[in-house]
Amino acid sequence: MKQAEPFIIPPGGEVLPGDIANIRFTVSENYFGDPVRIPVTIINGSKPGPKVFLSAASHGDELNGIEIIRKIAHEWDHDSICGTIVCLPVLNVPAFIAQQRYLPIDNQDLNRSFPGNKNGKSVNRMANSIFENFISQCDFGIDFHTSTRGRSNMLHVLADISNENVSDLAHSFGSNVIINSTGPSGSLRRAASDADIPTIAVELGEAHRFQKDLIDKALSGVESVLSAYSVRPIDSV
Fold first, then answer.
1. H or E stretch including 15?
2. Other C-beta atoms lying within 10 Å of the C-beta of residue 181
3. β-pair type (153-159, 199-205)
4. How far from 47 is each of 1, 85, 138, 224, 235, CA to CA, in Å?
5. Worst-scoring range by mean pLDDT, 28-37, 197-206, 228-237?
6. I need a labelling partner for 93 at 20 to 30 A (CA). Which of 18, 34, 36, 38 fits?
């Protein structure tokens, strides 16, 4: 029988089966040379299963996804988890602190920079560190977004339906609307899917706000996905 395995946190850390780790992981440095760290919660189930990443705030003013992932990481009962949930609630910490969409100073878009380049400029190094250390270890993922300032999106899924594995993932979320597209070059969902890590983007609401009704609906979608992939059996929800 297959056994649950540790989740590796480079360069030498690990999260053992049945454990939860809350860390701040260095992904780059700012223009003062100080480290840029992102919050990460690793929930490693005591039973074997898939590894899934949940990410948000690659655009720093998109708040709904942050609350979705916070609830999953810190309010859900994790005793029945099979596999691993990698929670990445704020990918773009500098933009989040500044409460703006793109990286401060150079106005670069993190969600057009994946899978990144370890020898590139700051945004490319951030993208590369996130992708290589966390995304690449996973079997599938969900990336949360909102609309930009002054606009609002109904809850919907963006997915490349021509990819059967991505299509299955998109339909398991249970949204009334799925928009078929490969995604822009450099977007996390496209880079991950191109690396055989099926990934969808979930759009909900508007920037600069926490919108409870939409957050609750998206949490139900995540529950549906995790049940469909046997990460969190339905009788534990």
1. strand 13-15
2. 14
3. antiparallel
4. 11, 12, 16, 19, 16
5. 228-237
6. 18
Give bridge partners of residue 44 from the DSSP assignment.
84
Return the ∠ at Cα 59 (arms to 181 and 27), rounded to 5°: 110
User: CA-to-CA distance for 221 and 211, rounded, in angstroms?
Assistant: 16
Cis peptide before 11 (omega within 30 of 0): yes
Can you say whether residue 196 is alpha, beta or left, with left for phi > 0 and alpha for psi between -120 and 50 degrees? left
Phi, psi of 47 (to 5 degrees): -115, 150
What is the C-alpha separation between 232 and 49, in angstroms, rounded?
Answer: 10
pTM of the model: 0.96
For residue 34, give the DSSP letter: P
**Cα(148)–Cα(28) distance, integer angstroms:** 25
